[in-house]
Amino acid sequence: MEKTNGSSEYGFILVGFSDRPRLELVLFLVNFTLYSVAVLGNSTIILVCILDPRLHTPMYFFLANLSFLDLCFSTSCIPQMLVNLWGPDKTISYAGCAIQLFSFLCVGSVECILLAVMAYDRYAAVCKPLHYLVIMCPQLCLRLVAVAWGSGLVNAIVMSPLTMTLSRCGRRRVNHFLCEMPALIKMACVDASAVEMLAFSFAILIVLLPLALILVSYGYIAASVLKIKSAAGRLKAFNTCSSHLTVVSLFYGSIIYMYMQPGNSASQDQGKFLTLFYNLVTPMLNPLIYTLRNKEVKGALKKVLGRQPSSGCLCAEVRSPR
To answer: 0.85 cut: is pTM over it?
Structure first.
């Protein structure tokens, strides 16, 4: 980057909601509360999935990975945002901004693909119950998670340097509370259409393609559920998938609106609140959604709180989910 750019030498100023001090105070209190709940909830899910041998199944292996991703997703930017909301200093170093952008792109991409993997797991459990153990073996579980992480790393490795090295002609004010790609691209003083189109192309591969796989998986699941004659059987199959469908709707709805618009035409305030939603509200809700609607997780949580369980390696034992 050219030295005249200024941002590499002095860093960036995260404007956020600095023009509305009262709103900043409210956001600090709300975000601190939501972040604390998200950290506690997701950490609990991870510990329960590790400590209770009954949850050493593919479904809960992926759920533990989702909770870990949610922890990383929120922690990549919420602490910095809380610091900026609390005091007058809104600056972030160039290196800090680059790390934040890289983490945000990587973890967000991994989560998109992991949700598709979880949909395939539900498809195997509902549509191929007799072959579930063979299909979702521990080796395949690990490979699918590795593919998700590899895809996220590729996206971050490509898009982060391209975004950070755009010439900004000394502009340092980011009209956001974190170093998010759309806000950084809008600061460029050169034609950034090539970077925007590349970001849009990655979004098709990392957002729309996994979403299409999720819809196909649930199409097959719906067809199988309709063939079940008993109402109890249909209800059980629905409960197996309803938590995942809720999480998918919350996460993908905001992500698609934010990233699937060429030129990122969402307004600045819309972008800020949407980012808050999928970066904080969704990670906070995920543990509640899976816990409140899942008897096995609630039972395991009571067992962990009631007495010390025997520890085991996650996914060391694979059984078909009930």
So the answer is: no
Buried residues in 126-139 as b, exposed as e (16+ CB within 10 A):
bbeeeebeeebebe
Strand order in the sheet with 12-14: 91-92, 12-14, 173-174
How would you write the pLDDT of the chain (322 residues) with one tens digit per residue?
Answer: 444 454 555 788 888 777 777 888 888 898 899 999 999 999 989 998 888 888 888 988 999 999 999 999 888 888 888 888 887 778 888 888 899 999 989 998 999 999 999 999 989 988 888 899 899 999 999 999 999 999 999 999 999 999 998 888 878 888 888 888 888 888 888 888 899 899 888 988 998 899 999 999 989 988 888 887 777 777 777 776 777 788 888 888 777 776 655 544 445 666 677 777 778 888 888 888 877 667 777 777 777 676 544 444 444 444 444 3
Query: Three-state SS string across 268-293, please?
Result: HHHHHHHHHHHHHHHHHHHHHHHHHC
Cβ proximity of 309 and 49 under 8 Å = no
Q: Which helix (H) or strand (E) holds 241?
A: helix 231-259
- Burial of residue 146 (CB within 10 Å: 0-12, 13-18, 19+) is exposed
Dist. CA 225–CA 239, nearest whole Å: 11
19 CA to centre of own chain? 29
Interatomic CA distance for residues 299 and 82, integer angstroms: 35
Torsion of CA 137, 143, 146, 148, to 10 degrees: -80
For 236-259, b/e burial (b = at least 16 CB within 10 A) is ebeebbebbbebbebbbebbeebb
Residue pair 283/70 in contact by the 8 Å Cβ criterion = yes
Q: Which residues pair with 121 in a beta bridge?
A: none
* Domain 12-305: which CATH number of 3.30.360.10, 2.30.30.240, 2.40.100.10, 1.20.1070.10: 1.20.1070.10
Region of 241 please: left (phi>0), alpha (psi -120 to 50) or beta.
alpha
What gap in Å lies between CA 289 and CA 305, rounded to an integer? Answer: 20
